[in-house]
Design a protein that fits this description.
mainly alpha; about 250 residues; globular
């Protein structure tokens, strides 16, 4: 409970949970679950607006903006810094990522990602409550793979709590794996359509694969992981999963 309270504060702009003292050890294990509930909140905001005669073209941007407010734009900042670093070259990568100024590649990454997400949400429309939460879940699940597979890197000589208290992928991902198994059982029990079940099980498999490939790609580019690259991984994975869902839908 205390670790979840710490994750609640670290990953969102929500106020501190009452009567609970937050701890910040091993909080990464809760990131996928928190991502799922952030997506659920965003989806509900979208549906409330649509049910109150807001157009889809107004509801989708507000839905996205609500996510930025909930997270404080933490992952988007990481996305921009990471792209600036990658395109600065390996020798200047970390220096560019540390620079408080945003470069042209960072701005372009934010612009294109936002347009893609808007396009995907316009496509899925009423299915958003089933799609957005699971996409945000996979985005944050990718950070578990990132932390497990790579060493923390920075310009400064300091450690990071995620790696310092890391207990291995199996233990840190246990909550997320249980969560996915609940989804699988739900599909098997609730739906009689074999095609629907196979499609959703396939999407869960794709989600895991994308969550594995993106951090491996980013980690190889910058030579490890840090907060910025984890943020970039979150945004890229959730955007790719949104795109895949939109295409299959």
């Amino acid at each position: 409970i205390n670790n979840f309270a710490g994750a609640w504060i670290f990953y969102t702009t929500f106020p501190k949970l009452p009567f609970i003292s937050p701890k910040f050890k091993n909080i990464a294990q809760f990131a996928p679950i928190i991502g799922f509930f952030i997506g659920l909140i965003q989806s509900l905001i979208y549906l409330i607006l649509r049910n109150n005669s807001w157009s889809i073209y107004a509801s989708v941007p507000i839905c996205l903006a609500s996510g930025y407010l909930i997270t404080g734009g933490l992952h988007l900042d990481g996305l921009m810094d990471t792209f600036d670093g990658i395109f600065a070259g390996k020798n200047k990568c970390l220096k560019a990522m540390k620079d408080s100024r945003v470069g042209s590649f960072g701005v372009q990454s934010l612009f294109f990602i936002t347009l893609i997400q808007i396009g995907c949400l316009l496509k899925v429309q009423s299915q958003i409550i089933f799609i957005l939460p699971i996409c945000l879940f996979w985005g944050r699940f990718s950070t578990l793979i990132f932390i497990d597979k790579f060493d923390y890197i920075t310009l400064e000589t300091k450690s990071i709590s995620h790696k310092k208290y890391w207990n291995g992928f199996k233990k840190e991902s246990l909550i997320s794996i249980i969560f996915v198994l609940i989804f699988i059982i739900y599909y098997l029990i609730s739906y009689k359509s074999t095609q629907f079940i196979i499609q959703n099980l396939f999407l869960l498999l794709v989600g895991f694969c994308v969550s594995y490939v993106i951090p491996k790609f980013l980690g190889s580019k910058i030579g490890g992981f840090n907060g910025d690259s984890c943020g970039a991984s979150v945004v890229l994975v959730e955007t790719i999963m949104l795109f895949i869902h939109a295409v299959l839908l």
